[in-house]
Design a protein that fits this description.
Elements: E1 2-11, H1 15-25, E2 32-36, E3 41-48, E4 51-58, H2 64-72, E5 75-83, H3 86-95, E6 106-107, E7 113-117, E8 126-131
The structure holds cobalt (II) ion.
Length: 136
């Protein structure tokens, strides 16, 4: 089940460059930075009320984000919904014939498990589904 919009991701060539705009001009704060090897990206999360902006930059030349920036330039890259059971959601979508980028969960930022739905299946926007880590 989808719970909420977890974050909206923006592809940028350099997180720190764009972070200055969010921090100095909008008064927001990059609260968390992380490298996500599974996606070959470096990310910075900016809390905004109940949700967050994720700045995503390529961590290597063969990162999917490097390809995105080359083709489309910086801008909106994906929307992420929080789900309570990522494996079940991906299974359900796969069974329904929805085109997926990940048919099984992969590691995301913050210890999450995530999977992406292909933009061709969603009306043009890449959608990430994300299950938060269990809190003990
Ligand atoms: Co994301």
């Amino acid at each position: 089940m989808i719970k909420k919009i977890d974050h909206i991701a923006i592809a940028v060539p350099d997180i720190e460059d764009v972070a200055r705009f969010y921090e100095e001009k909008l008064g927001l704060k990059v609260a968390h930075r992380e490298t996500v090897p599974a996606s070959k990206v470096r990310v910075g999360f900016i809390p905004v009320g109940q949700t967050r902006i994720e700045l995503v930059q390529p961590d290597s030349a063969d990162s999917p984000i490097a390809g995105f920036l080359e083709k489309r330039g910086p801008g909106l890259q994906h929307i992420c919904f929080e789900v309570d059971d990522i494996a079940a959601e991906l299974e359900k979508l796969k069974a329904a014939g929805v085109r997926l980028i990940n048919e099984t969960p992969v590691p995301g930022a913050h210890g999450t498990r995530v999977g992406f739905i292909h933009p061709k299946a969603t009306g043009g926007v890449l959608i990430e589904l994300s299950q938060p880590p269990d809190r003990d």
